[in-house]
Amino acid sequence: MKGECTSTSKLFVFVVAFLLIPNLATGQNNNTGELETLQILIPVRQFTGFVSYEVDPLTGEYNFSGFAIKVFQAVMNKALPNHIPFKFVPFAKPDGSMNGTFDDMLKNVSSEGYHGAVGEISILHSRTTWVDFTMPYLGTSISMLVRFRQGPTKTGLGRSTKYVVASSLGFSFIVALLFWFLEYRNDRHASQSKTADSSPRQSSATNVDDYFRREVLRSIIQTRLVMILFFMVLLVLITCYTASQTTTSLANQPPSGNFKSLNELIRKEANVGYREGSFIRNLLVRKGIDESKLIVLHSEEEMVSMLSKGSAEGGVDAIIADEPNLKILVAKHCDKFTIEPTYNLHAAGFGFAFRKKFERLPEISNGILRLIENDQLAKIQEMTIGNLEGCSNEPNNDSAFLDSDTLWILIAGAIAVVLLIGIVLLIYCGNRKSVAYPCYLSPCC
């Protein structure tokens, strides 16, 4: 009896040890991550803002870069309490092109034994059947990139400029008449004084004609001098005012594109572009756009070229994509394209994808939060994709340095300066009794 109890006890201990030891070993491996290197898929495309890689010709190793890559490396190497080894695996065919779409890449995470995927991966409900997502490392929305609207821009510049020019010409005529009247009165006074003081011998016809010729030339030169000064000031005022009004009028107008909505694109049968591998294609088909009107774009250069052409020349009239990618493009081509503000579809953002029930997922999400709180994420963005708001087309308030009150003050000041110069010339010239002949070019002749 005693022997049977001993045998039963040994059997029980063996069964318990057989069941618990593998679980303990597995749990230790999952907690430390020392025995397993994570296999992380990355997309392979010519859009290099978020993910890019190149092969070192000497070592044959991959060098990875891009915003998403740098954020993931910072999380795994610095923001986590325990380092987790990982390895990036390009999701590519033997020829180097991408092996399908982003959805295909996430399905491979689920079915081919990979641990996760990194890139500009949009967090979508339809993808949660294959993978689990971390918290977003970058907020985003779905936007539409279009060309600036071509055609004349209606502003209030014409009316304002005509008003300024008309007022300035009126002041010019007033100043001219004033100087003409002063010169005419001085000429009459001078001619009467000369006639009264001259003897019959000195009042020959030749001297009288020469005297009047000099007086007429003197009046013309003085008047022209004042008018030239006045028009120089006037030219500066009109130039400054016109430039200021042009800049202000254009800056205060919101960016306007050729198309405002998907319905307008569908109605006009316009071609629509989308980025290679993006889920946007399926979204646009569900929205009602004909598949024959959808054009895949493989690089930023192709996006610029096709959007510049338009549908009439075999290009596209709009590009639908995630807003961060469009802002990267707009920052380089502020004078050509704009993100249509009336079209915006909210999205959850960009996140990292991992296979279902991955034990480290909460820890990695906490690492992203730690980067955000320490401003490390903003620094990484500045070093990689830069400031996405660098070309927001906001009006520059400093350009409107000439308002209506300032303009009239400048005009009045210019007129006062011209009148003061004229009065000084009249007084100075009136005090001079004699000038050597000839005096055609002297203002005080």
UniProtKB/TrEMBL annotation:
Name the membrane topology term: Multi-pass membrane protein
Q: Name one GO molecular function term.
A: ligand-gated monoatomic ion channel activity
Write down a Pfam family by its short name: Lig_chan-Glu_bd
State the GO CC annotations. membrane
Say yes or no: keyword GTP-binding present.
no
InterPro entries of this UniProt entry? Glu/Gly-bd, Ionotropic_Glu_rcpt, Iontro_rcpt_C
Stretch forming the signal peptide: 1-27
Task: Give compartment(s).
Answer: Membrane
**Major location, coarse class?**
membrane
Write out the entry's keywords from A to Z. Glycoprotein, Ion channel, Ion transport, Ligand-gated ion channel, Membrane, Receptor, Signal, Transmembrane, Transmembrane helix, Transport
**Chain segments annotated as transmembrane:** 163-182, 223-244, 407-428
Per UniProt, residues of the Ionotropic glutamate receptor C-terminal domain are 39-387
Write down what this protein is called.
Ionotropic glutamate receptor C-terminal domain-containing protein
Q: Which organism is it from?
A: Saponaria officinalis
